[in-house]
Design goal:
alpha/beta; Uracil-DNA Glycosylase, subunit E; six-stranded mixed sheet
Length: 233
């Protein structure tokens, strides 16, 4: 990797890439932060977190980034933190998960016609990735969303995930504003659904209630109903 000239130095945005590179260090700030966290928490995963679920799933859920003591610790998206409690319970209630909880990577949870990814694969300081880091990681997300078949759906959790998903799908983020409960027709005959992120802050402040979140995921289930199951593992 070329020597970086600043603490936020990032390599130029890449062309579409595989959806996961366990050794990616494109973003110097994130790589350095992960190294410090790894030193403080040697039992934590502390690497880019791979997507979870079948590659050919008709629904891909896009979050923001791994949480410090959640996905960054467990190595599986939304596993071990507060946001995962509501996410997995809702996916299970709507038929997209085999059990309502996801506490550990080896807990036997499986997704059904669903895959979970993130706009940024690495833990960012303060849970706030920089715009350049989101762009640098977008090739991985683009490769992930490219597998969503015609008629499939993408669920964006929050505005940043919404914009990253649109960019990964080859759409202009400015053309489709984020709004909780909104749905947008996007390239390839797919549909992008929006929800507030199921974070502790949003649920504690009631910006997002379990009923609000379930309404969005149930709408996706209705959207997919009547189509055959996705091919693949």
């Amino acid at each position: 990797m070329p020597k970086a000239t600043s603490k936020t130095a990032i390599l130029p945005e890449a062309a579409p890439a595989p959806d996961y590179d366990p050794d990616c260090v494109r973003c110097e700030r994130l790589a350095a932060f992960l190294a410090r966290v790894r030193s403080a928490h040697p039992a934590y995963f502390c690497r880019p977190v791979p997507p979870f679920g079948a590659a050919a799933a008709r629904l891909v859920v896009v979050g923001l980034a791994p949480g410090m003591h959640g996905a960054n610790a467990s190595g599986r998206p939304f596993t071990g933190d507060h946001a995962g409690i509501l996410l997995y319970a809702t996916l299970h209630a709507c038929g997209f998960a085999t059990q309502p909880e996801g506490a550990r990577r080896d807990d036997g949870l499986a997704l059904v016609d669903c895959r979970i990814s993130n706009a940024v694969k690495c833990l960012p300081p303060g849970n706030k990735p920089l715009p350049a880091e989101i762009r640098a990681c977008n090739g991985y997300l683009a490769a992930d969303l490219a597998r969503v078949p015609e008629g499939g759906a993408v669920l964006a959790l929050g505005r940043i995930a919404h914009e990253a998903a649109l960019r990964a799908l080859g759409e202009r983020p400015s053309a489709r504003a984020f709004a909780h409960g909104a749905r947008h027709a996007v390239a390839g005959g797919r549909t992008l659904f929006d929800s507030y992120h199921c974070s502790r802050y949003n649920t504690n402040t009631r910006r997002l209630t379990p009923e609000m979140f379930r309404s969005v995921v149930a709408a996706i289930a209705d959207h997919l109903r009547g189509r055959g199951p996705a091919d693949g593992p």
